[in-house]
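Record 1 of the preview.
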Amino acid sequence: MPNVWCQGNAVEVGEFYSAVLPQTSATTTMTYPTEGLLDFQRDFAGQALVVDVSVSGYQIRLINAGNEFRPTPAISFILTMDPLMFDGGEDEARSRTKSIWEAFVDGGQVRMELGEYPFSKLYGWVEDRFGVNWQLMLSDPAGERRPPVIPQLLFTGPTAQAQQAIDLYTGLLADSSIGMVMPHQDAAAGIMFAEFNLSGQWFSAMDGGTDHDFTFSPGLSLEVSCADQEEIDRLWEVLSSVPEAEQCGWVEDRFGVSWQIVPENMGELMAHPGAFSRMLEMKKLIIAEL
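->
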């Protein structure tokens, strides 16, 4: 599940997406405790900690926190507008795409103008007012069906890394596979576009080269729910590459992507007295100690 770091405004962000995106709702699923918080967290006592957003059934988690991190375009959300979703077909899908675009552009930043491209009749890339990047795309009903939201990883820098990352992630997580891979004409430039599936969930990746002034950030991380401590240990061992970035189940891999490796019953564990305080002292989460 992708997690978006929000600057104390997760409830506002969830309400915005609920109002703008089709078939979308937002629910506060975890609150900060009133005791045991660190100094920089005390203003959040009793407030929302986690807001879960469902976009046509796709789950995005909003973390209510401080100003430490912001999302970057290195991870964006491809929002596929399928004409089959709407009673009015393509005309309604176009209309809804344009209305979402206008809402995201308001206070946001256009990265690629909304218009017709060789790969889509209607496409645009925009960073919304909260710093989250979206790629709006009118899909072809005759093509292979995809979920309404697909996270895309953009690898920047002088060395192509997308294929290495895809191989690592699909080899690490069960029931994963690699789909279409479209290389750049210059093979050294890596992948122009690729699709892969992690445990039943679609992702996309591409190599962006050096023409970017951003890379991955904890502002948008990927959360993996693990069945037991053995699975947490296995994933942690492979993904841990930056020890100084490890805290409360967060880990940064060799490509700079941030992951949260957590027990699948995290909500239940956090209900234990003092569990939140104990979690703050951990790097890798130890279920027996929560």
